[in-house]
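INSTRUCTION: Work out how this chain folds

Token vocabulary: learned, describes local backbone geometry

RECORD BEGINS BELOW THIS LINE
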Amino acid sequence: MGLRITVLLWAPVVRVENSKTVNAPQEKIFALITDFEKLPSRFPNRYRSLKVLQRSGNTVTVEEDVTAAGREFHQVTRHLLEPNSKLKSEVIEGETKGTIVVIALEPESSERTKVSVEADLKLGKMGSMLGVFAKGRIKEGLERMIDEFENKVKSG
């Protein structure tokens, strides 16, 4: 597992990258992370609520209440899907507007998938002050998120 965190002190942005190989098929992980209506029940510590606003081709726009870096945020997020390989999410409304998270899935075998996450997190008004302090929470949260993908796929 490789983790790299960059905190830009001149801007309220925290860049996080992480990857891990999990024991789950690529297709099942992708289906899990793109079944937006079920995310709050599957990941209640991350999603308090989520409502799909629009679906168009490979784009899904949602309104969501999420927990990140120990804080709760209300936001609108646009998700671009590349079936079974990539999910790119961009916050388009809310305090963290401009945050981009990319989850890439690469099969290593029929039952093992490398999950890579790259995130440019804009933490809003408090971002420049919280960035240094939040990076530990972000690191832990990102590692837990990938582990949760694997556990949820295994449990069905």
In short: The CA atoms of residues 45 and 73 lie 13 Å apart. The chain has one domain: 2-151.
